[in-house]
Structure to design on (883 residues):
């Protein structure tokens, strides 16, 4: 049995410790906001925060998060997250929406670290998050917008 | 190709009561204790038939308006588009309007252009524009008639504004009159608004799905389906197309924790597990021998050689105009060029998935169905049921770009085979979610077909075009499918030559012919289909001819577009907005392309710079589009941004290759989509228009490749004729 905290709630799961966190969240805890895109840390759709740091849950094994605090898209609610989600809605960022949980988790982590990111900061922080609908123009604009919202 | 279908396609039908029951259950989340979130916005909680005012509009006693969407929404915004049309005619308040997807019912919900239920070819708004406005206007008339009766006033005195009906001192919400309205006879004298009275169309209407998609889109996609007692299925398929199973040993897989069973179906060997991870691991542990005797075993290098040889031989005539050979003989300069376009994977972010539930007498599927009528018929056929016993629940799709619109419904057929085999083996009516991993999706076929073009075109001493011989070699997508009847003529598959054979450039001596080699690699439409390669050839060749003629690239095109004022119009608009007449900044280079597809007209002007390592950086793209009435301008801009991003992704680094019949790529580490740093700034200008609305999902894609290639030529003096550009070190 492995115990950890998800969105502030203590959870125990019974599956093998080498099960990727992604599938623990999606199948064992039925939290489907964290998406499966590639399984090999190449798309970012599965991004969550582990003790505040963004990580690809498809390449994080359950055994490695014992005792950790995990935040998923369902629970993220920091000031940065609220600004990001407000900007996302204001600028109509999502198209199909499948990548957006991961985009929002990465963008939130970026703003928490770098409240006023430059375009180069955004390129670097968001490089691991693919968007096949190519909503990149709006993701960039929405991150800048969220930074302004947080400042205001 | 429709080998899963044992009888002709039927216009399938579900009665309204069944559908409403199904819809209400899904919307209320009551679905056998599961978690599916299909409807967004104010959902209909306890829908019943009496509340349904038309098959397209439902109004609840609480005043919620649910627009029943007959199309798939894969991110292109169609659900919002259709909601906009209804809301406008109904004068509903934006925040009372939600959407839900229609059941498979070709009679009521067919695409008026296809004649079957389905989405594609950028037709969603075009075919629904009248129909959904009419549905909204009908609902409006019924509400007004109900109010008139209730208040004892004339219908002419009742007005609606922002979701409230009023006449003199009387007023009521939609909800208060919904039941009464639904009980009335459907009116016969319905008139739609005049364009000047539109409140949402052409202005703005909130994207109905944005709130959920900004908070995790929990339960929205097929991949997210979680039902009580559900199994997950992962299939091992032949690594070569057309290979068959010889033998397998599942001992190791069966011993793994979480693996429930391993079964054989015609498509391969299926691992059934209690969750996704053990299913994937179990599949990896299978030992399988394949029989490749009937498989396609050629690689792309060999195919390319064969295509190149074919490109030297005359093919089937697609179009001919004047005498191209004679005009070329008389030309002052002739340019001869060969172009190579690779196979492409759609690589939509959500890998394919579908959930099936079969109990011996009925079948239910949950998936982002794009051709519901074919999926419905094929699903029923494989299950051995009548279509009336089968239901397709369309879910939101995590992208498609064509991948979910499948002429043979191969993955629905596969899920049906799994559901049937499992029920027959165990007697368990158990939901089974079949998923593709990313590797399955990359290696799974149904690609944009590889093509070779060979063109000879000339200009005369006055700089006028003098002869254009154009040969195209590539698999025809539509050949052998239900779409062949209207897309294949005299052996020529329109989807290989569209955008070239039907060019509106004035080319008096023009000839296009085509070869469709027989190759066992399944191919499919990929965002903008044939235009993805024809536009590249047409627009880079026009650039070469302009240069040969010593003319400006925009002026040269305009001179050849006398018969197409709308295409000329977007070209002028883009040139104007991009400052074409002034020189770009130091170190910046511009290229232009203009192309009509899906009845929309798009011009794109790309500005690039070259990095020190010789790769191209696309700095900015200025676009102009004429798509008739712009129903939702912000969504049009979004589709152009995304459409050109998708095209840019392909030309920079995307390439699917095979060696001895096996796909070389596996995942996003060797099939390489565009990332943030390569996305340019994009400016979209929409031509105001009162023409009927046309497509926006695809037309942004074709011009980007040639616009960039033409800009690269300005920067480097090199013409890029083989894609992707990474092969030449440009990306
Ligand atoms: S699913 Fe984890 S990075 Fe793609
Ligand atoms: S919105 Fe579709 S993949 Fe990003």
């Amino acid at each position: 049995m492995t115990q950890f905290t998800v969105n502030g709630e203590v959870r125990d799961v019974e599956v093998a410790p080498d099960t990727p966190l992604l599938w623990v969240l999606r199948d064992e805890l039925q939290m489907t906001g964290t998406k499966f895109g590639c399984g090999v840390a190449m798309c970012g759709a599965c991004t969550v925060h582990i003790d505040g740091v963004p990580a690809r849950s498809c390449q994080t094994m359950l055994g490695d998060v014992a005792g950790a605090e995990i935040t998923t898209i369902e629970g993220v609610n920091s000031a940065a997250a609220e600004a990001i989600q407000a900007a996302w809605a204001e600028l109509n960022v999502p198209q199909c929406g499948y990548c957006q949980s991961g985009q929002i988790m990465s963008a939130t982590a970026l703003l928490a670290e770098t409240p006023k990111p430059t375009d180069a900061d955004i390129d670097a922080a968001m490089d691991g998050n693919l968007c096949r609908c190519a909503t990149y123009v709006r993701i960039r604009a929405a991150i800048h917008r969220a930074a302004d919202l947080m400042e205001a | 190709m429709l080998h899963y279908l044992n009888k002709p396609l039927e216009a399938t039908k579900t009665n309204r009561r069944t559908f409403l029951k199904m819809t209400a259950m899904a919307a209320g989340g009551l679905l056998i204790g599961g978690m599916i979130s299909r409807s967004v916005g104010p959902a209909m909680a306890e829908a019943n038939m009496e509340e349904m005012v038309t098959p397209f509009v439902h109004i609840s006693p609480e005043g919620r308006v649910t627009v029943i969407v007959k199309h798939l929404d894969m991110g292109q915004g169609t659900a919002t588009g259709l909601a906009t049309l209804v809301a406008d005619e109904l004068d509903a308040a934006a925040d009372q309007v939600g959407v839900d997807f229609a059941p498979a019912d070709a009679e009521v919900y067919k695409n008026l252009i296809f004649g079957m239920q389905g989405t594609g070819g950028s037709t969603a708004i075009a075919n629904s524009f009248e129909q959904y406005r009419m549905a909204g206007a009908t609902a409006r008339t019924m509400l007004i008639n109900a109010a008139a009766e209730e208040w004892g006033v004339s219908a002419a005195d009742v007005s609606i504004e922002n979701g409230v009906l009023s006449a003199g001192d009387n007023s009521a919400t939609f909800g208060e009159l919904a039941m009464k309205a639904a009980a009335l006879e459907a009116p016969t004298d319905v008139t739609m608004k005049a364009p000047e009275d539109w409140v949402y169309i052409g202005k703005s209407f909130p994207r109905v799905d944005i709130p959920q998609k900004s908070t995790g889109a929990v339960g929205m996609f097929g991949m997210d389906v979680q039902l009580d007692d559900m199994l997950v299925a992962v299939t091992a398929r032949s690594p070569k197309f057309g290979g068959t199973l010889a033998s397998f040993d599942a001992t190791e897989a069966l011993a793994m924790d979480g693996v429930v069973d391993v079964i054989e179906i015609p498509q391969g060997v299926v691992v059934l597990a209690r969750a996704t991870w053990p299913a994937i691991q179990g599949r990896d542990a299978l030992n399988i021998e394949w029989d490749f005797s009937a498989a396609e075993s050629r690689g792309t290098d060999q195919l390319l050689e064969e295509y190149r040889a074919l490109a030297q031989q005359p093919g089937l005539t697609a179009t001919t105009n004047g005498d191209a050979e004679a005009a070329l003989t008389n030309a002052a300069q002739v340019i001869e060029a060969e172009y190579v376009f690779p196979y492409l994977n759609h690589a939509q972010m959500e890998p394919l998935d579908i959930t099936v539930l079969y109990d011996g007498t009925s079948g239910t599927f949950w998936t982002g169905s794009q051709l519901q009528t074919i999926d419905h018929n094929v699903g029923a056929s494989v299950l051995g049921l009548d279509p009336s016993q089968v239901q397709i629940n369309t879910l939101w799709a995590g992208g498609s770009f064509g991948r979910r619109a499948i002429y043979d419904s191969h993955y629905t057929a596969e899920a049906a085979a799994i559901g049937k085999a499992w029920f027959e083996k165990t007697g368990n009516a158990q939901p089974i979610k079949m998923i593709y991993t990313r590797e399955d999706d990359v290696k799974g076929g149904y690609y944009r077909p590889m093509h070779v073009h060979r063109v000879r075109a000339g200009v005369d001493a006055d700089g006028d075009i003098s002869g254009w011989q154009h040969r195209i070699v590539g698999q025809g997508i539509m050949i052998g499918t239900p779409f062949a009847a209207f897309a294949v003529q005299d052996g020529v598959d329109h989807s290989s030559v569209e955008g070239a054979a039907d060019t509106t450039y004035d080319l008096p001596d023009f000839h296009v012919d085509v070869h469709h080699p027989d190759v066992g690699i399944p191919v499919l439409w990929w965002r903008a289909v044939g235009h993805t390669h024809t536009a590249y050839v047409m627009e880079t060749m026009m650039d070469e001819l302009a240069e040969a003629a010593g003319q400006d690239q925009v002026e040269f095109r305009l001179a050849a577009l006398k018969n197409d004022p709308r295409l000329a119009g977007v070209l002028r608009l883009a040139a104007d907005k991009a400052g074409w007449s002034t020189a770009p900044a130091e170190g910046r280079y511009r290229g232009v392309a203009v192309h009509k597809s899906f009845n929309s007209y798009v011009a794109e002007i790309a500005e690039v710079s070259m990095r020190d390592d010789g790769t191209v950086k696309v700095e900015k793209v200025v676009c102009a589009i004429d798509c008739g009435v712009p129903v939702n301008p912000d969504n049009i801009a979004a589709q152009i941004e995304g459409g050109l991003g998708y095209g840019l992704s392909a030309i920079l680094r995307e390439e699917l290759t095979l060696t001895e019949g096996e796909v070389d790529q596996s995942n996003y580490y060797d099939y390489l989509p565009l990332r943030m740093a390569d996305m340019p700034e994009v400016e979209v200008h929409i031509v105001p228009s009162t023409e009927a609305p046309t497509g926006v999902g695809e037309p942004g894609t074709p011009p980007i490749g040639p616009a960039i290639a033409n800009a690269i030529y300005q920067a480097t003096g090199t013409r890029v004729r083989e894609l992707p550009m990474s092969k030449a070190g440009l990306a």
